[in-house]
Amino acid sequence: MSAENLKAEIARRYGTPAVVIDLEIVERNIARAQALCDAAGVAFRPHIKTHKSPALAQMQRSAGAAGITCQKIGEAEVMAEGGLDEILIAYNILGEEKLGRLGKLLARAHITVAADNPVTIEGLPEAARIAGRPLDVVVECDTGRKRAGVETPGEAIELARTIAVAPGLAFAGFMFYPPDKGMAASQAFLNETIAGVRALGLDPRVVSSGGTPNLSQLERLEGVTEHRAGTYIFNDRMMMNHGMATLEDCALHVYATVVSRAGAGRGVLDSGSKTLTVDTGGGLDGFGLIREYPQARIAGFAEEHGLLDLQRSNDRPPVGTVVRIVPNHVCVVVNMVDTLIAVRGDEIVGELSVAARGKIT
Amino acid sequence: MSAENLKAEIARRYGTPAVVIDLEIVERNIARAQALCDAAGVAFRPHIKTHKSPALAQMQRSAGAAGITCQKIGEAEVMAEGGLDEILIAYNILGEEKLGRLGKLLARAHITVAADNPVTIEGLPEAARIAGRPLDVVVECDTGRKRAGVETPGEAIELARTIAVAPGLAFAGFMFYPPDKGMAASQAFLNETIAGVRALGLDPRVVSSGGTPNLSQLERLEGVTEHRAGTYIFNDRMMMNHGMATLEDCALHVYATVVSRAGAGRGVLDSGSKTLTVDTGGGLDGFGLIREYPQARIAGFAEEHGLLDLQRSNDRPPVGTVVRIVPNHVCVVVNMVDTLIAVRGDEIVGELSVAARGKIT
């Protein structure tokens, strides 16, 4: 089957928009990231937020990953159900409802959680009590991204001590997400923090770094034991912009149909913000790259309309044309759909459930 | 139960984030919009894209709506399954897969579709053939929004003629979505178009206008027979900004927990772009209004983190606080979850399935 025939077949079988992944590229991306971690001597713990599919997580594990990363308990529950048993939930888990679920999960799989404050740590022993086994906790550190995490080594050391003395909790180490251009500051933070806990007699078994872009500079941080990354499995325009992927490394496309040509220099796709999302990918121009019409700009959205600016495009697709779009940010696009269509090259080979989609708690 | 107790109960039963609607406010919003349409003498055809729930569509119908509007066939299929039988699919339907589904749908419910180009019209007779009954088609007109729709009365009249002579199709009229400040231009477009088709001996039975903001100026357009609106059922910050709603009219809140205080002037919510979405609501400041901390700014997101800027907020929520957020744009938030929690005032009364969520084709 040719690429054109594949498009026609996907439109015929599933209709558009359809979210399609090429397993050949997926496997290549998985192998490449694993090889980078292997070469740097750090364990790899892929983040499943990108694909939310136990089947793909199993592929990552089979290729050598030491475990997986989830963001929410609901994601971890789906992964445990799918047979994954070594899970970092990179999140502050709070509240009776979540601690109960965490306890049940801990009873069946090895779970590590993150904490960046004493209130979180105060609640976690309840989960360990329910599970009847200790819960590993890493301290989340912020070395410059200004998201979650303590901002100073002193706070990190203090929380490590709090974890170590809490009933049912085991201090496991540290987790952070270095800013793209903050390796020196991250290293200084790590050095001071690791030395600080060692002086207290604590062992930071896990020092977990993260980010697909940082896969290219794993060797720049000393003391890191594992790396988390998600987007690399599919890649997207954002990763291309970071220099982490070429078009040939983009495994996921949104297949869409031109449903209107509106004005002469305009067009309308059947994929709007409820499929492609308004994620700018950190300030990219337009909301996706159309493979067949790279000069066409996805200029904006209605909820179910993609608004094409064709003024700079010499080729202009007629109504009915099916196109393939590389989205700005794959993680949020996958999250919009229940099913990924799997192909190998030009052959449809099956469907994958986005089983953890919508698991926001 | 008090509002504080309700928050605690929702967190205890469901965990956060949770998307909660107050049925008392929903019913008031439904009644108010219906009354505006009744007073203006136009039929009301609510757009279900906002709630995607057959149960809420039935409430709209029971309150007097003449039918409903959907954007995708998948939405219409869910609504027909839920007993709704008078449906406008406000979209160009193209391609074998969709025309087959449209035919099946037409066999069981009264369906009208929109078209703005000859390619779409050429395909539609296949759906009528499958159903064994005629398909009503309205011409989509663009009176200034620059989305889908023909841009001139001449094109609209020409398409009306094309529909009228196509086998199995019935020309039903026109559909448009007037720009907020484009009533005079829209009226001129309508007048010329309506006169044009009448001169051909065609009857524009349906002249369908749209938009929640335009509910306040229904009387400004002559010749309109029906109005479509979606957001009014829940309202949001965008509708408040349009002057179409007050805080008391906002029926939907995202309940979220403060999971980290990060830096002194910062905080982190457990609701990120995968719940609240990065929709700016047309340029609003921040990504939602926190009822309890109106000076706190939801400044940005990670996928599962809401990043709070608390610098201008005198009150700063401690870790563990549950807050209620009015989102910028409810339609895209509802689309992220499978279930809405229904309350009346301070009592939990049930759950509603967002049954048409993810029905993107």
Tell me briefly what this model is.
The structure is a homodimer of 361-residue chains. Chain A is α/β, with parallel strands linked by helices.
Describe this structure in words.
- Two copies of one chain form a homodimer.
- The first copy, chain A, has two domains: about 140 residues, D-serine dehydratase-like domain (Lyase, Ornithine Decarboxylase, Chain A, domain 1, Beta Barrel), CATH 2.40.37.20; about 210 residues, Alanine racemase (TIM Barrel, Alpha-Beta Barrel), CATH 3.20.20.
- Chain A contains eleven helices and 17 strands.
- In chain A, helix 4 packs parallel to helix 5 and helix 8 runs parallel beside helix 9.
- Chain A is elongated and about 70 Å long.
- Chain A starts with a helix and ends in an 8-residue tail after the last strand.
- Chains A and B meet through helix 1, helix 5 and strand 10 of A and helix 1, helix 5 and strand 10 of B.
